[in-house]
Design goal:
With 444 residues, the protein is α/β, with parallel strands linked by helices. It has 16 helices and 14 strands. The strands form 3 sheets. Strands 4-11-10-9-8-5-6-7 form an 8-stranded mixed β-sheet, sandwiched between helices. The protein has a 4-stranded mixed β-sheet with strand order 3-13-14-12, with helices on one face. β6 (199-206) and β7 (209-210) form a beta hairpin. α1 (12-25) crosses α3 (48-60) and α14 packs across α15. The protein is globular.
Length: 444
Amino acid sequence: MLGEYRIEGRRAAEIAASVERAVGSGELEPGRLLPPMRELAAQLGVNPNTVAAAYRTLRERGVIETDGRRGSRVRSKPATTGRDYIRVEVPDGVRNLADGNPDRALLPGLAEAFAAAAQRSDREPVMYGEAAVEPELARLARVELDADAVPDGPVVVTSGSLDAIERVLVAHLKPGDAVAVEDPGWGGLLDLVPALGLRVVAVGVDEEGPVPEDVRRALDAGARALVVTDRAQNPTGAAVSATRARALRAVLGEYPETLLVEDDHGHRIVDLPLHPLAGTTRHWALVRSVAKAYGPDLRLAVLTGDPVTVDRVHGRQRLGPGWVSHLLQRTVVHLWTGGAVDVPAVAASYERRRAALIGALGERGVAAQGRSGMNVWVPVPDETGAVARLLHAGWAVAPGARFRVSAPPGLRITVSTLTPGDIEPLADAVAAAVAPASAARDYV
């Protein structure tokens, strides 16, 4: 059952650690069946309740999953490994289109904003016991949320989108609950859900967002939460349209106890309108980060939601980090009020690159999608082979396995660094990598 690996330990924590180490090192592979609890207890000379506690810990950490009488086994994507291990090493001389980063040339300078924030902090240092959210940041955020028809709700600040989503899920769910997520979807979220001891339920996504029939199926099967990317979906570039939003609201209206989490990380880099779903269910949250528009190292996101959700997130945050640095918050205020990012120009820049690549691929018979944001998704029949062939041709792209649960294979191409002169050579290389035999006939 376990091959040559022997689980060790006398206490539940030791047994759980032994399994987790083996999963992390690869000695226990994904899908490997673990011994029944009574059998392992007999081997270790401990009470079966001790093994039961160890297995419960492993489930909560997203390392294993239990399927009734079929027993417990290592998860197919255990949280101890994460999806970052599915990456392409980019050799010197190869163009990196795999990292998902924004165009550095479109990011504003931060020195002036940080200097202004630091000068204010010198005059008005933030001390213990003060409000966690900078009032002007909350006001500016709320103005923009109101303009996008996001329901009224308090504002809290977190250390990025994933931090916000984690806090919202933990505020309402318990280990074993199911969360409906987009497939393909954000790899960080697909890792986070099982790491919290929650179960992933895949929901299909097309260019207009989550497929309503899939959402209904997931909620009908018992999913207690749904996470939706409103715009610039990673990796497909999907954006929820007005028509799709109406359809999704109709589905959610039938399941009002669903926890709805919306991720609008594309805010300030896309010009497609927001069509929020917020307010359709009793508990909801919408999060906006500044990473894509102002730089990934500016770790700040604004979260709003229903009062209960926001209060729980804020209360738990107060017992941990306490608050997000007001120096960061004041820096973001300075960036927002100073017009540091020309949103239409940034959105148009990414749009030109996506449209040019998608068009060039279409001319070569290669289907691709990317309605918003900085990524293009290319379905492929052989993901591993296509990635390898593109790497050999001088282009590094992200393998779709980093973003999939059960969706078909694909490639994510980040367009941020593409120039007009790159489009045709890249399209030729992708066409040759996706269908090497036919591409060789057409382009030799």
